[in-house]
Structures are given as structure tokens and as C-alpha cells.
Amino acid sequence: MGYIKGRHKVTCFSEVPFSGLKYLLNDSDKYEPYGVICSKPEIYRLGGRPVIYLPDDETEWIPREELWRVVRFEPQKKIDYTFEREWRVPSKVELTSFGGFYALVRTRSEAKEIEEIAKANKLELVDAFIYNHLIEMF
């Protein structure tokens, strides 16, 4: 709550490189070690765009219908989320919107559970699973 400006509901993504995931996950109480890894062209196709980092008092030039893209940036007050390299889609994104993706999970048993649920629903969207302990290697 309070992170999205304007009236749009959005789906947020991070463009953090694979090697930076361990820092994003270990240095933040904001994230759990789960995710969907997909291509930037897929996000763009769905209407996703990179956020615009600005102080609140410098957003007057942004059209109201684009405020969903603005993230507060005030480093002197230690408000700096630029490490997230965030992109946003101005709507809810269904996993079926992607042709396929990689799933970030904690354990092999979680991956197996997800595969069983997907099979039961005749969904074959996960191309492969990446386990959290592999991230620590980068």
C-alpha cells in the first residue's frame, strides 16, 4: 500500500540481474525468495515499462494516467529503490500471459508441488525451476 501513484493497479517486476538476486532477497524484508523469470520483451508486450524515479515534488510534468510508473526517489532521506530496477505493467498479469517462464523456488519439493498443480490444471508454463541455493553461487 502506498507505493503506487495514480489509480491503476499494477504488477511489478524487477530487472535485477541474476547475479544480483541474492542481494535483493537477502537485504530486504520486502521480498520472499519466489519469482517468475521471464523475458523483457514479454513484459513490454503486456504494456510493461520501466519506472521513473523522481522526488514527489517533481512529478507535475507526468500525465495523471502515467503516474503508475513513478517511484519516489529522495536519496537525502534514504528513499532509494533504484536497486530494484523496477518495471510495471498497468494491470494484473496472469501467468498464462507468458509463453513460458522460469520459476524461482526454495526447494525441489516446492517445484514438484507446483508441477503437480500445473499438470492437474493442464498448464505447462514453467520451463524450468531455479532453486534459491543456486543464487548464492553467483
List the helices and strands and how they pair.
Elements: E1 11-14, H1 21-26, E2 35-37, H2 40-45, E3 49-50, E4 52-54, E5 70-72, E6 86-89, E7 101-105, H3 108-120, E8 126-131, H4 132-135
Parallel strand pairs: 4-5, 7-8
Antiparallel strand pairs: 1-6, 2-7, 3-6
Computed over alpha carbons, the radius of gyration is 17 Å
What is the overall number of helices? 4
SSE arrangement, N to C: EHEHEEEEEHEH
Structural class: alpha/beta
Q: Tell me the major beta sheet.
A: 3 strands, antiparallel
The residue-averaged pLDDT reads 85
Strand arrangement across the biggest beta sheet: 1-6-3
Distance between the termini: 32 Å
> Helix fraction?
10-25%
Shape estimate: globular
Sequence stretches where pLDDT stays below 50 over 5 or more residues: none
Strand content is 15-25%
List the domain count as a whole number: 1
Total beta strands:
8
Please give a handful of descriptors for the protein shown.
138 residues, alpha/beta, three-stranded antiparallel β-sheet, three-stranded mixed β-sheet, 4 helices, globular
